[in-house]
Amino acid sequence: MRSRISALSQIKIDTLVNMIKMSYSFEDWNEAISLSESLLELAHLTKEPEKRFSCLDSMEKPPVYYFGYSYLMKGLALQKLRSYSESKECVNRYSDLSWVEDSSEESQYYIDKFKVFAKVNALTLDILSGNKEKLPEYLHALMDNGDEIIPGLITIIESALAHDFNVDSEIEQLTPYIAKYKHQNRPVRISYYLTVHYLLALYYYKNRQYADAITYTLHNITLSDKLRNDKFFKKSITLFEFLKTYANDSQTAEYSRILNSIFKGEIENEESFDFNCIARCSQ
């Protein structure tokens, strides 16, 4: 145990936070859990003021944030692995962080913030477990917390796909917020942004709304390429190949245009490669 603490103390605590965000964006849930547990261990070091740990020298936030974030991200990863009871235990831990015993104004801000997260995420687990009766309460909670709307829409669609119920009304209410969702250079938010488009495509396919399914798939191919997310690019290409028998001529042409644009951009990065020659030779 002592050697593990020694190894962890060589990692800046905020670097570990960023590592958790990256593992989440790559959907590496087991790694996210492991890193979150490591963050919790580092957070506990903040309660040993008599010792000096270099990993804590440049903490960007108060200790309560790191306790809350470790439980939050571990709970979210467990949720993705469908370990709902274990995820609920994590939610309970960050629902009231007053046990950290830090009375500063900034700490109180994070205590209140994680309390809100806990309320929404407890409802999230109810929805994922198939409790459709909680949808009105869940929608109300999402509307009160703008940053949770897109993750919440993901939850609603995941539950609808898993438990086979209709959420057209909920999708209609929440999809306008997708265009307003800010995700610049933030791995977790980019993951949410691509996931919601992908799941909408799956939902519409399952409900035989093929035109909508293909539209969202084409959009996600472009988005994932622009955001340089190979995982979602491959998933979206694969989904289109599965859906292409339902595509109309316009959608098929759009697919070819997107791929040609991507291909041309990649080829033109090769200084010695003459793309125009390929175009002439193919005529």
Write the layout of secondary structure elements.
Elements: H1 2-8, H2 13-25, H3 29-45, H4 63-80, H5 84-94, H6 105-128, H7 135-143, H8 149-163, H9 168-174, H10 187-206, H11 210-226, H12 230-243, H13 249-267, H14 275-281
Helix pairs in contact: 2-3, 2-4, 2-10, 3-4, 4-5, 4-6, 5-6, 6-7, 6-8, 8-10, 10-11, 10-12, 11-12, 11-13
Protein name: DNA-binding protein
A few lines on this structure:
This protein is an all-alpha fold and 283 residues long. The chain has helices at residues 2-8, 13-25, 29-45, 63-80, 84-94, 105-128, 135-143, 149-163, 168-174, 187-206, 210-226, 230-243, 249-267, 275-281.
Structure report:
By secondary structure, the protein is mostly helical. It contains 14 helices and no strands. It has helices spanning 2-8, 13-25, 29-45, 63-80, 84-94, 105-128, 135-143, 149-163, 168-174, 187-206, 210-226, 230-243, 249-267, 275-281. The N and C termini lie far apart (68 Å).
